[in-house]
Amino acid sequence: MHLKDLTQFLAELKENNNRAWFVMNKPRYDILREEFLQVVAQLIVQLAKFDPDVAQCDAKKALFRINRDVRFGADKSPYKTTFSASIVPSGRKKPSEGGGPAYYFHINEQGQLFIASGEYMPPPERLAQIRKQIVGDETGFGKVLRNKKLLQEFGGLQKERQLARPPKGYSVDSPHLAYLKLKDFMVWREAPLPAVNGEQLLAHLVDAYKSAHPFVEWLRTSLVLSAE
Q: What's the rounded Cα separation, in Å, for the pair 102 and 89?
């Protein structure tokens, strides 16, 4: 994949975020999207070697559309300035659709690579499942938190969005209280895009997701138990 061409396209789109410019540059977009799709397809194949659950994920469904939903926000810019994908077994990218933990990444117009795993803004019933599993599997969750590769790669779970008090049904004495308060269950990191080609980017992503895999598996356990 031509990563320099991608970031150049996104930077230009940032400065010319309108339909007329996009239509004029649609051939560029089509080529870049196809290259990005191939990276995602290859990534699914590599992930399936250690996470067979994602083997049947459709690369086309994993890609996010570049068109923005402008119905409710103040920003009416019609296009996103990222190329992004979310790989989940179900193919359902939105938390409200019950997609479960995902392997997500995007590249933006500033040449930043964002890599994440877990669940962002899960709906209330899903949050309840995860919190129940934290208490029910206190030891297993503790092992995830102490996983050396996870800590080295991501620095632990993100705590940007959390409750001020324990969630309903839990007390200040509940195990792992700081994590019970979380509204998202994610690990992520963002850094300048390495000076690599598409093949090297693929290897970079695979290494990161291998480190996140124990966390993803633990989150899936709470999905399985809730269905029993």
A: 8
Distance, CA of 212 to CA of 145 (rounded, Å): 11
The whole-number pLDDT of residue 96 equals 46
Under DSSP, the state recorded for 6 is H
Angle, helices 124-136 vs 138-145, to 10°: value is 100
Residue with tokens 């200040």: 172
Q: Report the amino acid identity of residue 15.
A: E
pLDDT digits (tens, 9 = 90+) for 90-106: 765 554 455 689 999 99
Sheet harboring 102-108: ordered strands across?
82-87, 102-108, 112-119, 185-192
- DSSP bridge pairs for 82: 108
- pTM reported for the whole predicted model: 0.91
pLDDT of residue 1: 81
Query: 112-119 and 102-108 as β-strands: parallel, antiparallel, unpaired?
Result: antiparallel
In total, the chain counts a number of residues equal to: 228
Q: Which parts of the chain have pLDDT scores under 50?
A: 95-96, 226-228
Q: Are 188 and 115 in contact (CB under 8 A)?
A: yes
Which among 194, 218, 205 has a CA at the least distance from the CA of 62? 205
Amino acid found at 194: P
